[in-house]
Design brief:
CATH class: Mainly Beta
Radius of gyration: 19 Å
Structural class: mainly beta
Strand order of the largest sheet: 2-11-6-8
Oligomer: single chain
CATH topology: Deoxyuridine 5'-Triphosphate Nucleotidohydrolase, Chain A
Strand content: 25-35%
Length: 144
């Protein structure tokens, strides 16, 4: 699948690191570093703009290493980039650690997954099909 992209950053385009990678790293495009204080958040620019085909979305997700090692994650994970959005891709990062975290230009801050999605049409009914689970939610399946 080809996706139109404009790169106004000084970094290479996002790419898959391995042949089996689902996501591509997004990098911070900064003129000066940004420090996130504990529980602080900021929208980090990437310098990327793209035109997704209708029926395709881009999901912005945390990088596991950044989350595990530094406590920094994507606040609205996964963030969705819709096919009709044409603005700069920004990543909302939050620092959930007890230490300040400094983001440098070019730092890998998130990953982006390209995904096909469906549009739903509602069908209003009076009853739903019965299942073994029924209305049990939030841990009710017994799986530990």
């Amino acid at each position: 699948m080809n996706i139109k992209i404009i790169n106004k950053s000084s970094h290479n385009l996002p790419h898959y690191e391995t042949s089996a990678s689902a996501g591509m790293d997004l990098r911070a495009n900064l003129t000066e570093s940004i420090t996130l204080q504990p529980l602080g958040r900021a929208i980090i620019p990437t310098g990327l703009y793209m035109e997704l085909p209708v029926g395709i979305e881009a999901q912005v997700r945390p990088r596991s290493g950044l989350a595990a090692k530094k406590g920094v994650t994507v606040l609205n994970a996964p963030g969705t980039i819709d096919a009709d959005y044409r603005g700069e891709i920004g990543v909302i990062l939050v620092n959930l650690s007890n230490e300040p975290f400094t983001i440098e230009n070019g730092e890998r801050i998130a990953q982006m997954v390209i995904a096909i999605h469906e549009r739903a049409e509602w069908l209003e009914v009076d009853t739903l099909t019965k299942t073994d689970r029924g209305s049990g939610g939030f841990g009710s399946t017994g799986i530990k």
